[in-house]
Amino acid sequence: MASNTISLSIITALNFLCIAFAFDPRPLQDFCVADLTSPVRFNGLPCKDPSTVKADDFFFSGLHLPGNTSNRIGAAVTSVNVASVPGLNTLGLSMFRVDLALNGFFPPHYHPRATEVITVLEGYLEAGFVDSSYNRTQYKKFLKKGDVFVVPVGLLHYVRNVGSTNTVVLAVFNSQNIGIVTATQGIFGAKPPINAEFMANAYMVDENTIQRLQKAFS
């Protein structure tokens, strides 16, 4: 009985340890304002000398301004991350304003290092993600102003404007460097290209189709 209790305690501790390492590490000081000019490179960004830190290092203005959606997907992102707010360094947080024109969208993609919380500020949005189970279940919602939707870390998801006006979304992430991998861009836009014959077999289409997609996403 005692050995079972010890084993259970060890398993529980390891589970919490895995959770702890699944996201950005906790800071070891009040703040570590990023020194964006430093040549030092490691897993994160080096800190400024605290004596040079100012309130502006923790400040951003302009999230009320719409982004330029005149592009192929009709979408724009305004970033509030460590690059625009150096004071976010080591705090495990970033946020984005997302503008979607009529019929605008973000294609299926995933963030390898962050869970996403989506809040609709204006408009009407479809958001969905697909789990990693054998059934590949899709969880989808239609969101109006004030609605919130959560996308778990690492899962393939998409958003698209399904309303009659522009849509504005606030997206918050629990990482300062979320990463983004677009399914089509990652596969068909790889450099150098993945072997077309192999890709044709994998996706059950002909090589010409694969080559056309590789050219489009290159």
TrEMBL record:
GO terms for molecular function: manganese ion binding. Mn(2+) binds at residues 109, 111, 116, 157. Gene3D superfamilies: Jelly Rolls (2.60.120.10). Keywords: Apoplast, Disulfide bond, Manganese, Metal-binding, Secreted, Signal. Coiled coil: none annotated. Belongs to the germin family. This is Germin-like protein.
